[in-house]
Amino acid sequence: MLKKIGKDFSSIELSFLRDDELFEINKKFLNHETYTDIITFTYEFNNALMTEILISYERAFENSKKYNCTFEDEILRLIAHGLLHSIGFEDKTKSQKLKMRKAENDLLKSINKSEFIKKFETEKLN
Hints:
This protein has 126 residues and is an alpha+beta fold. It has helices spanning 2-5, 19-30, 57-66, 71-86, 94-109, 113-125; strands at 9-17, 38-45, 48-56.
């Protein structure tokens, strides 16, 4: 997935939080008093990106039911979404949302899902 994005990442941190925890972060750092499924913070250092992706596992589970997909697929979509935000994609307007969704789909098609999850689980243990 990262090769397809074409940027150098020095680190990517994924955190899975409860709805209320992500709500508080959204309020404190972005001045949004709304629930959300994902927040992405990105920093650039020596031409490499350091990205923090915060995901509400409760919201992801609800989204998987709402959009009739597996929880795993929804988590992968959120990770792709967060990575796209980290390289400058926005999703505030209808046009931006359409571009974001197309880019998410392109990224998700470019990965071998089982290898990606195996790699993620292996790195999580280290």
